[in-house]
Design a protein that fits this description.
two-stranded antiparallel sheet; 8 strands; homodimer; Ubiquitin-like (UB roll); 4-stranded mixed sheet; alpha+beta; 29% strand
């Protein structure tokens, strides 16, 4: 017998926005967007996706789980690298198709597969037409850890 | 004659991740994800999407533009409500399929269509299986402005 789906479905957009029932609005691929920020400093560390199982496990365990679209599998972030993400707070947005989690990161503290703390390590030049070259400036150039050490590649 | 596309295409994943060329990786719908945070306090205000034109206009003007998936149109946020978002900084993530913008918001300061400062106005209870009811707690209950005033609805 199949398990009951762990989440409710909102009766209406108004109910999803105004209520206290968690009724995630998964997209056609069964995913919600997850924005991950650091408890310390508040920087955005990464953007990822959760399916129902990843969301359930994140809520139950307090450790961030995602759905890897590239690998097509459930993914407890940090299982390979040691940089587990402990969720201090989770919020859901108005129409419940995105969650925001604030995390503390174990190990090296790197959340990016490049070994950097954040995936958002480059700033975009603003003002004027987008530059063809050199539009990006490294804000966080140095990895915290060598990705070859983390992942053996 | 068609305009040249304003953005480069990365030669490889490695080039996209390590380089200084802005080469957004638009998805099958032609969109990148945009995470929007407040300059003051750093809270996540909303998650939205940009097509190439919205991204170009945001970079050129320093005012946030999005692609509305529900309305199928380009959208300069705040044109109706008065709450324009001024971009203080833009960053791009490792594989360039998401941008993070830090904004200052005009007018009422509301970025959510419910009239609240942030779309993420409810926290999700953590620890234990997802609750069927009352899983959400209002963190920011009161709108800054009545949405009926903003949008006449």
């Amino acid at each position: 017998m199949a398990e009951a789906p762990p989440f409710a479905t909102a009766a209406s957009k108004a109910a999803a926005e105004a209520g206290t029932v968690l009724a995630p609005r998964f997209d056609a691929d069964g995913l919600v967007t997850a924005v991950v920020t650091a408890v310390e400093g508040g920087d955005v560390l990464m953007v990822a996706h959760m399916n129902a199982e990843a969301l359930r496990l994140t809520i139950e365990t307090g450790i961030a789980h995602y759905w890897s679209r590239s690998r097509g599998m459930l993914w407890r972030k940090g299982d390979t690298s040691g940089s587990l993400q402990h969720v201090a707070e989770m919020r859901v947005d108005c129409d419940q198709d995105a969650v925001w989690i604030k995390v503390r990161v174990d190990g090296s503290g790197a959340s990016c597969h490049t070994g950097r703390r954040t995936c958002f390590y480059r700033a975009v030049a603003l003002g004027g037409a987008p530059a063809a070259e050199a539009a990006l400036t490294f804000v966080e150039a140095e990895p915290l850890v060598d990705p070859e050490t983390l992942y053996g590649r």
